[in-house]
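Lesson 9: reading folded outputs for more than one chain in a single document. The general rule is that every protein is listed as its sequence immediately followed by its structure tokens, and records are never interleaved. Here is the first one.
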Amino acid sequence: MAAEDKDARYRRKIAKAKRKEYPRRAPEQWTEQRYAERGTDCLLDGVVDTVARLDVGTSDAAEFRARFEAPGVPVMLTGAMERWPAMRSWTFERLRTEFGREKMKVGEDDDGYPVYVRLKHYVRYLAETDDDSPLYVFDSSFAERRGVRALADDYAPPACFTDDLFGLVGERRRPPHKWFVMGPCRSGSYVHIDPLGTSAWNAVVCGRKRWALFPPCVPKEVVQPKHEGGREAIAWFTHAFPILAAAADEAHRPISAVQRPGEVLFVPSGWWHTVLNIDHTIAVTQNFASAANFDAVWLRLRKSRPKLSAKFRNSLLTARPELHARTDELEHAAPIGPPSPSSSSSSSSSSSSSSSSAASSRSSGDTAARAGSASAVASPVASEAAGEARRKRRRCEGAPTVADAAKQAERAGVGAKVCG
């Protein structure tokens, strides 16, 4: 095929993917904010990195669980990816050469069907694009597809995250939980909570990511205010972040981090988070259920996925009898927040949603407890709902603030620093 024909084919494929994911966005609207002209430095201006770092080479999983997972505190793990083959082999050129003909998911259309682009076309797009919020590879089935499943052999979950309860129901039944992620500068994920009460870890192989996180007690209307630019990560960081960083209520100020190659960010269950790629990045991320977040996972799973919850509960009887018993203790507990689709992305789906279903998927998981109906005020369910409301207030009162995060980082031996 002639060079001009290949070029034309590439441009048609990218334009088609854009139309499928954002059918109401005109071609010129992809660059109307002209963010690309501002460069990458402005994306880091004044960012104070206050998330603690924990070196897994000098600590163990027990320390991680006691200091961070159990109390629900974000942490950046270092030294967890040194033996990954991905750290050597996941380069843009190598992936283009070896997997160029394979298709990777870059979004969903208005009917919820995946939108795919061949990797060879996407790598070129990544290098050339000046889109404000570019298409973003966020692929949850890569480990199952013959053409690219070898990528799953290039990494392994860090030892801190081996408690993977959904694994008990088998790979075919469990909700989507692992994603291969690739995106150019300015791509990212709008503010959301991960589905089904799960926690997440995100590992960067190359490039840098900027994160903003809020504890579960912060209301949705605070973290998702109306602002210019729509539901795009870069628009949120441009317009919403400066306002929230100066919020009068310190609990409403985002906790920030800049993640670098070889670092793994732990996002606790129920935490709001948004991420923006500062450079062209490659990463892998997984969601997981563990003993630490079991209550939140079970209550959401029971409400939104009753058939799966029954299989999950049965699997716990022999594998984790103490957690099986806990499901009985939670029998009359009120659901935590609305059902959250298990197909939601974990930590970074491309910016704005392309449909109402995709939007609810990415922002699912509101953690406010629901009280019982007026006719059931005296019931055990209503009583438990009131108890959950009290627990939520206590969580909010004790939730880590920006100042708390800075102190935690200092105790971990990493002083807060200004990036840029």
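And here is the second record, again sequence then tokens.
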Amino acid sequence: MSWDEFLYLFDKKYFPRSIRIAKEREFLEIRQGTMTVTEYEIQFTRLSMFASDLIATEEKERQRFIDGLNDHYRRYIVGNLMIDTYAKAVECAREHEQDYWAYKKSKDQTKIDTKTEQRNNGNMTKNSSGQHKNGKQRQTQYVNKQNSQAWKKQKGNGNNGNRKQGDTINTGAVVLVEPQPIPAEPIAFHGFCYNCRERGHKASDCPNEKVQDGGRWG
């Protein structure tokens, strides 16, 4: 039995026509997607066994592999005349994959560093603003205290200057004082004086010389 006859009988027994057609369709639709280049190459090789007539030549196999790569790898290979074999296409894709992930890692780290720096700067600005605010409050309190002390001192000096000897200092305390009697105003006298016979005062208050009884007016 020749090798070709063995393969024919093997495929006929273990890979019926329906399975081969399904695998061939899967090979035509294969794309790298989320797979790495190595994972994609393994899957490509496995499915290519069911579509050997589609990759009968080196160029067809190379082109089919390139068509399934992601865009950011395929654009470095398409049109490059130096990559003229399937093996070179696989190797080139792997090299660009390493460069891509190294660049992406560096870019992501730069973003992280930038965000960290911005967050630190924001905290420093916030702390500086808080310290400035606290300092301003303390300064305002100090000025208010100084103004209050100066006002009290000025008020005390003014009271001392206006106080006379014997005056008491008004401390604001309530002091109970006993009521003092109000003197009665004298009642005007409109009668005649028995001494000088003049109107407006009594004999006891007469300013004139006292007249003897015999000399009084009748």
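What the second record shows: The helical segments are 3-14, 17-29, 37-48, 58-67, 71-74, 86-162.
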